[in-house]
Amino acid sequence: MNALCRGLGQYSQTLSRPGSLPGPLFASYASVMFVLDPKSTTPLVTQIVSGFRQMVDDGSLRAGAKAPSIRQFAHAHAVSVYTVVDAYDRLVALGYFQSQAHSGFFVRSRGTSGTAVSLGGAQYSFDSMWYLSRIFENRGLRNKPGCGWLPSEWLFADGLKRSQRSLLAAEDEMGGYGEPKGYLPLRQLVRDNLAAREILLSADQVLLTQGSSQAMDLAARNLIRPGDSVLVDEPGYANQLFSLRFLGAKLVGAPRSPSGYDLDVLEQRIIQHRPKVFFTQPRLQSPTGSTASLAHLHRVLQLAEKYDFMVVENDIYADLDPGVHPSLASLDQLKRVIYIGSFSKTISPNIRVGFMAASASLLEEMTRLKMFSGLTSSEYTERLAYGALIDGRWRKHIKTLRDRLARAQQQLATQLLQAGFALFTEPKAGMFLWACHPSVQNAAELAYKAAERDILLGPGHLFSVDLEPSPWLRFNVAWSQDEATQAFLADMKVA
């Protein structure tokens, strides 16, 4: 993928060779050289990052030294795995660590390091946890061309308000926890909508969830165990990559192409790693915006059958697609495919209503896991979503939204090209454009500069399997028309 940017300008990275210092020796260094203070006002994540940075900067740890595994460090210092994941992500983003697939983390050569940016006294590092937390805070950066949702005025606020008024006026009993699989009328509506996409199933094969994130988490916890190899899009859906890392999966990248996948590399990696499952987003994929062709979908299913793995299809942007495109689920009819969708992208992110469709036996397993982990999902928000979806103005809203996104796609694509960016593809639909600039080797550095101007960008390493520096950026076309972002792009053109 980076060949596109290399053709526009020199893009190179010098990575140190791992293994110069054995893991156990490094672990003992880490234990002896700095101590964490759980009573300090300084967060543990910051203490870990500062400790390793000091050791690298003063030469105590040299390029190529292997870091203790996340679980080793967590056990040795009595901290959570989640804390160590966050710290290691930050060290990668800062250029102190590099991640080697299936080998762990190593000290990077400091020739390509980055620095954090200071905004009003606060330190910002574009690691995955900072990105995830910051974009979901109202007090975060004001302009958000790097975020993953639509502006409020683009959503179906009026339909949601009408649904809420109807729900409040109803005399239905709202006590209890609701059905384990979710509100039946909404599951029936999902069944009918999927039938229109040629996915044939019963309402009992639909499980409502708290957004698509819970659906993907349920699938991951049901299908994989720590140490399992898992195929993921490369670049891929940032939230899911972080979740899979946390579960201990060994991530194997399936390189994306403008028409879907690099099929030759995909099969080679399947043969080498024998994954248990492939998490993929064929349609209007985040971050690239690409949509897989029918031929590529057929080939993925052939590979799944040949090498015996499951496929989890994330199709949360289906409603944003004005074209008629098949899905893996429509071709497979839920034999090897678990299908995931969401209403949060088109109605409102706040309602957090998603769904999962799967074979009857697998769906029952997912339902039990949902009950074990959080009982039922909210019937109130499911009824809100249902009311909005049966609103007479829903279809007009979707058409208007698609047209508006198409115009924003064209406008931003033109602006990026004029500013000297290269585009991975021009989807002309959906929310995202994936772009790089020949003068930028590490998009995190550009994100730091943008943050100084109150702009949140989506640097490419956040969407990378190995969190390695990348020249690529994800742009949300709906959030890229504000004056600050336009001025930032204009400065890139001048540069």
List keywords for this structure.
eight-stranded mixed beta sheet; globular; Aspartate Aminotransferase, domain 2; four-stranded antiparallel beta sheet; 18 helices; Aspartate Aminotransferase, domain 1; alpha/beta; 43% helix; 495 residues; single chain; Arc Repressor Mutant, subunit A
Would you summarize the structure shown here?
With 495 residues, this protein is of the alpha/beta class. It has 18 helices and 16 strands.
What would you report as the Rg, rounded to the nearest angstrom? 23 Å
Spell out the CATH superfamily of the largest domain. Answer: Type I PLP-dependent aspartate aminotransferase-like (Major domain)
Q: Treating each run of at least 4 consecutive H or I residues as one helix, how many helices?
A: 18
| Main sheet characteristics | 8 strands, mixed
CATH architecture of the largest domain: 3-Layer(aba) Sandwich
Which word captures the global form?
globular
Instruction: Supply the helix-strand structural class.
Output: alpha/beta
CATH topology-level name of the largest domain: Aspartate Aminotransferase, domain 2
Number of strands: 16
Q: What's the overall average pLDDT, rounded?
A: 84
Question: Biggest sheet, strands in spatial order?
Answer: 5-12-11-10-9-6-7-8
Helix-residue proportion: 40-55%
- Number of domain modules: 3
Q: Which stretches are poorly predicted, pLDDT < 50 over at least 5 residues?
A: 7-32, 111-126, 132-139
